[in-house]
Amino acid sequence: MTNSVLPVDMGSIEFCEGQYLAARVRALSALAGNPYGASVRELGELSGCKVMATKSPMLNRVCGDAVKSPDHFAALARWFANDGREVAVPLVSARKPGGEARQVGECRLTKMRGWTHAQMAASVDELKAIKPGVRIEELDVAKLGSFLDIHASAFHTPPEEREMSLASFVGLYESGRAGFFVAQIDGRVAGAALVYFATNGMAYLGTAATAKAFRGQGCHAALIAARIAAARRFGCHGVAATALMNSQSRRNLERFGLGFSHVQTLYTAAQD
pLDDT class for 1, splitting at 50, 70, 90? Predict the structure, then answer.
């Protein structure tokens, strides 16, 4: 594994992913009565995102470089602990996943299983134009249910959390900073993906999934192509994505010209 020379640095990649996750939580907190107990707290360059209705580390984490801001991170960790919640935080390394335990200021952290990913990026000028081999439809807000059906199945969203998940995606759509797409094979929705347009000029390929019956038929590649095209239309200068280290998703992203930048590993507060 080697680092690619990229026009965007590690911080800008982490920023756009963190902003995407925080935007989902802010969308929930804006609902009348805040039914899911969602909140975002910013301290310095860190953002704490918390949703009481779920324990998912996607919606319950600290975004930003905790190592550079250990005091702010400790304060956010206490904010989570006051509600009886464990804090999750991404830590980054240049090539290899971090160790089983890390110390950030006063906080002792342990690695979360299954949460180590390759962070990838490229400028839009470096990306290849590959014609989709599968029919792609860009969704309006009324059709986001078809996106959610694929997303919820792939990521094992509990039935009681589906409405909350949909509400977060509707909020993203209404912000004007996200695009949602589905891939169709034989008239059936076979895959789904979204792109988030961050304020730093980066487009983040936030999530993608293909139904089991349609895997290996080009859905993911077609969804990558559609989202890169959307990033160009929006005027983004770069595209970032996350993938499991040794996955087909990573290989598909590399086909389009996205290069490996660094490793991100999610940690949580150690249990005494």
Answer: very low
